[in-house]
Amino acid sequence: MNFVELFKTEGIVLNLEAFDSDSALSSLTDAHVANQPALADRKDEILEALKARESQGSTGASGVGIPHVKLDGVSEVSIVIAIHNEGIDFNALDGEDVNVFFSILRPADDADNHLDLLRWVASLAQHEDFVSFACQASDSSQVIDLLSELA
Questions:
Q1: Is the pLDDT of residue 1 over 80?
Q2: Is the C or the N end of the chain the one with fewer CB within 10 Å?
């Protein structure tokens, strides 16, 4: 599967307005709703699920955070990306600030594809230039182009 096809311009936030992990998760939740308007009535549930996931252990490292959850009643994957140029404290495993967030909501019954998607996102995060290139993007299409190049 070409995971780049999962990204929509509505789900890309170039100037994440957040100052800590909770505000980042709130903004990511808003991006999921923009990405899939059908999720609007589940906004509180999504935010609480993302917070619960991060409370189990940070998904941040190497400048990238990957908060992800499975939700009953979600029919398709929603993946969003948000960029915070200065970086914020996300309790990352390496103690570094996080600049780029991938957030994934997936159907509860789609484990196989989800693991492949997480592996793909993790491989992007490990690319030595990914964070700096993502932070230089001036529009959503540049982010999608970067994802395509590195895929």
A1: no
A2: N
The dihedral sign for the CA sequence 57, 114, 128, 86: negative
Show the CA angle centred on residue 5, arms to residues 3 and 9, nearest 5°: 120
Neighbours of 54 (CB within 10 A): 21
Percentage with pLDDT > 70 across the chain: 97
* 48 has a pLDDT exceeding 90: yes
Please identify which of the residues 32, 68, 114, 127 carries the catalytic annotation.
68
Residues in contact with 37: Cβ distance below 8 Å, sequence separation at least 6, in sequence order: none
Q: What is the 3-state secondary structure (H, E, C) of 73-140?
A: CCCCCEEEEEEEEEEECCCCCCCCCEEEEEEEEEECCCHHHHHHHHHHHHHHHHCCCHHHHHHHCCCH
Pairing state between β 60-61 and 64-65: antiparallel
CA dist 34 → 27, 84, 130 (Å):
10, 18, 24
- What is the Cα–Cα distance from 144 to 90, expressed in whole angstroms? 24
User: What is the model's pLDDT at position 114?
Assistant: 77
Mean pLDDT of the chain: 92
Decide if 68 is catalytic.
yes
